Amino acid sequence: MYEGGDRGASRSGAGNRAGSGTGNSARSGTGSGPADGAPRPHLSHRVPDLGALELLLAVARHGSLGAAAREAGITQPAASSRIRSMERQLGVALVDRSPRGSRLTDAGALVTDWARRIVEAAEAFDAGAQALRGRRDSRLRVAASMTIAEYLLPGWLIALRAERPDTAVSLQAGNSAAVAERLFAGDADVGFVEGLAVPDGLDGVVVAHDRLAIVAAPSHPWARRRAPLDPAELAATPLVLRERGSGTRQVLDAALAAHGGLARPLLELASTTAVKAAAVSGAGPAVLSELAITEELASRRLVAVPVEGVVLRRDLRAVWPTGHRPTGPARDLLSLTRDRPRER
């Protein structure tokens, strides 16, 4: 049942006033509408709402206003008021009421035929909209920067699977710049990035927090030092790093900009896993998310190197194109990420 409030009486004579001896401007073109540039009256002011039309159809089926009211789930006085409101809006009597029941007038029978077509079209519209929602809800395309894709999203997607077992999920991993590009191209429904701020053209919300750590293999001299690194020494040392455009690199570049900037990287690699493997092998010290090195620190395959005078903390964000907040499975995934406290 389509419910809707009474629209009230329509404007007297609206839509029926043609120019009377004032020229041909209102009759140009097809002659069926206002002159070019003139505002058209909204149909909502002239056409009864769906709830009222369905009520009229119920009166036609049952021959009783009381039975129509019961079908609509409203009281008989409310049904009578709605019919009277529609009669005032249309300017014609639709229903003759008598102790024996309610009978459509000739005008009411004609309006009922029109109403049936409108309601059938609305039902078809609703069925189509449901089909679109079903198609939307059948898949979820996620784009995420590497650390989030490898260490946070698996848990979130397992939780989503429990809530939406029929939704097929695809995950595209890349750096934060690549995530933004996929969202702009319409190739992802929601993204996750690790940079300092929300990229231009995107809206976002913080879903977790992370810190970057300086790590080295146990054989590296930094693993045995007692004093923390200072920012200038860190900046001047060639490191194993992620590529430009990654959230990790953005945070590190910003943190060390006031200390001479980063030295030329020892190695520049396109994934967290590759950076970690290079550091474990002894290629050189690296900068990695704390989320990525829990096992390596516990097993002493890597050693955390303390550093003073520089902040390497970052926010992890869910992002989407400005003005297009996630819906369906993407909205549910976003809710799952925010239901889990991430403060470290």
From TrEMBL:
Pfam families xrefs: HTH_1, LysR_substrate
Keywords: DNA-binding, Transcription, Transcription regulation
Keyword DNA-binding: yes
Domain HTH lysR-type: 48-105
PROSITE patterns given in the database record: HTH_LYSR (PS50931)
Region described as Disordered: 1-45, 323-344
Family that this chain belongs to: Belongs to the LysR transcriptional regulatory family.
Name the record gives this protein: LysR family transcriptional regulator
